[in-house]
Amino acid sequence: MDTEPAQGKLRRLNLTMFFPLLVVGGVVVVASDARTWWQALVLGAGVLAAMIAFVRWAAGEVLRVAIPCLIVTAAVWPFSVLVAGGSSAFFGVFLVGSLVVPQLPRHRVAAAVALIAYIAGVGAMRLLVSDEDVTGELTSFVFVPAAITAVVLGLMFPNKRFYDVVKELEESREREAELAVIRERVRFAGDLHDIQGHTLHVVKLKTALARKLVDIDAERAKQELGEIHALVADTITQTKELAYAQRRLNLSAELENARNLFEAAGIRVRVNREADVDPEAGRLLGQVLRETTTNILRHAQATRVRITLSEWSISIVNDGAQRGPLPELRGLAALRQRVAADGGELTVEQEDGQFVTAASFPAREES
Hints:
By secondary structure, the protein is of the alpha+beta class. Helices cover 69% and strands 9% of the residues.
């Protein structure tokens, strides 16, 4: 099932949406500012560094390439101002800086001010080599680049906060899912204690009684030993049933338990009852529901689950399925054999982002 975090999906969406636009912008920068082929190479290096930084930002690793990309783009900007005479090449350093500065662990505001000051200061150097109108040169090389940088930086800081919130929500959801699984294990441990704790206590009392009776009432001692043997055998059976999720399985109780587990993990649940489930099928269908609930909590990134019940069948559909091969789910594989032994069918499918687990007893439906 799909385990890609929402934060990764958002970054990948940004890469898909904005990378082509940035490439076009980079091509425009080179085409408008370069006068010779070697100027185009220099300006192109700045654009390439900016694209690398954006791609790594989309992967959540922009700080790994921050220094080399900033050095290249920061060097291209004064080259464009003093040599090529172009005012668009701030594109590289402003883009890399806008991606890097919000990711810094501290001093982000100071870094943002320094970036804007650098772009404006380098742009002002145009006055040293230009005889054009001062107001026009300041507008093209100082005011416009600095303003664009300030605006984009102002937008990137909330963007960073948004990603942080998404990450916190993901971590919270993972913790809730783990707690739900832990609660299920605690419930299992409680059931096991109920079975074996009570039995061992009774066996202890009966064994003590049998020891007292063995010399004075052999027949009564044999009777007690027989009851101990039967009690132990029954406990072994109950323990096996518990291990295979068969003991005291009530479909309505399992349905309520599944709903509580999903809601605790932040997953929306919808239950459709097409008909009352036949009691004969309820035991195995309850096992299918319990195992599927555990699989969803442990392996999926589901946001919605739909459970459909009929007289002889159950279907559990959750979103968040991966596009790759069907994962190996050993618990459901073992259940498939038990369902088949009772004349039923258990199927597991994933398609169009959904994972479907269904069990039915077609022979009984027709009878």
